[in-house]
Amino acid sequence: MSHATYELKAEARERVGKGSSRELRRNGLIPAVIYGDKQAPIAIALSTNEVTKRIHAGGFMTTVATIDVNGEKISVLPKDYQLDPVRDFTMHVDFLRVSASSKVTVEVPVHFVNEEKSPGIKIGGVLNIVRHEVEMHCPANAIPEFLTVDLTGAKIGDSIHISHVSLPAGSTPVIADRDFTIATIVAPAGGVDESAAEA
């Protein structure tokens, strides 16, 4: 499962536009929008500190949150956020309204385990990661925190495809028409250490 859900308090924004956004940021707030689920978008303002903390904690884009807008609690999934290119603070966030039955498309990080059980890596082979993240269709209430790739038994020349990964229930890769590669084990630039290979 993904990171624990959390709640953010927000206030509805009457005025939108550059001037009001600048004023919000001066007051320690971030302009944001909640849209989707066949309802009208809602313009809101959130605490800059709270949102920045959530972004830096990791899993921001794959964790369903509750936003309390003047007492109305709305389940959302962050879809996008803009950072100031110079000062690295959050400028704006887009949230997608979700329900228990919603399916969402998210980038799920890939974690590799058991490198020490890979004969190819043991003799000096290099893990060449083709995809650090895989785009997945998932239930909004069961977004995987990451996909686990087990490298046990992987030799030099082996390719690890999406079919080698056990996917969480209800989650499917967006690329469905081919068994795409996630990583390969390649020989190092200087060749393989033969003595290690014999050992």
TrEMBL record:
SUPFAM superfamilies: Ribosomal protein L25-like
Superkingdom, taxonomy of origin: Bacteria
Keywords in alphabetical order: Ribonucleoprotein, Ribosomal protein, RNA-binding, rRNA-binding
One GO cellular component, as annotated: cytosolic large ribosomal subunit
Stored InterPro entries: Rbsml_bL25/Gln-tRNA_synth_N, Ribosomal_bL25/Gln-tRNA_synth, Ribosomal_bL25_b-dom, Ribosomal_bL25_C, Ribosomal_bL25_long, Ribosomal_L25_dom, Ribosomal_uL5_bac-type
Residues in Large ribosomal subunit protein bL25 L25 domain copies: 8-95
Span of domain Large ribosomal subunit protein bL25 beta: 103-188
One annotated GO biological process: translation
Signal peptide boundaries: none
Gene Ontology MF annotations: 5S rRNA binding; structural constituent of ribosome
Keyword rRNA-binding part of the UniProt annotation: yes
Complexes and interactors: Part of the 50S ribosomal subunit; part of the 5S rRNA/L5/L18/L25 subcomplex. Contacts the 5S rRNA. Binds to the 5S rRNA independently of L5 and L18.
PANTHER family (UniProt xref): RIBOSOMAL PROTEIN L25/GLN-TRNA SYNTHETASE, ANTI-CODON-BINDING DOMAIN-CONTAINING PROTEIN (PTHR33284), RIBOSOMAL PROTEIN L25_GLN-TRNA SYNTHETASE, ANTI-CODON-BINDING DOMAIN-CONTAINING PROTEIN (PTHR33284:SF1)
Chain's role: This is one of the proteins that binds to the 5S RNA in the ribosome where it forms part of the central protuberance.
Family as reported in the entry's similarity comment: Belongs to the bacterial ribosomal protein bL25 family. CTC subfamily.
NCBIfam families in UniProt: bL25_bact_ctc (TIGR00731), PRK05618.1-2 (NF004128), PRK05943.1 (NF004612)
Name this polypeptide is given: Large ribosomal subunit protein bL25
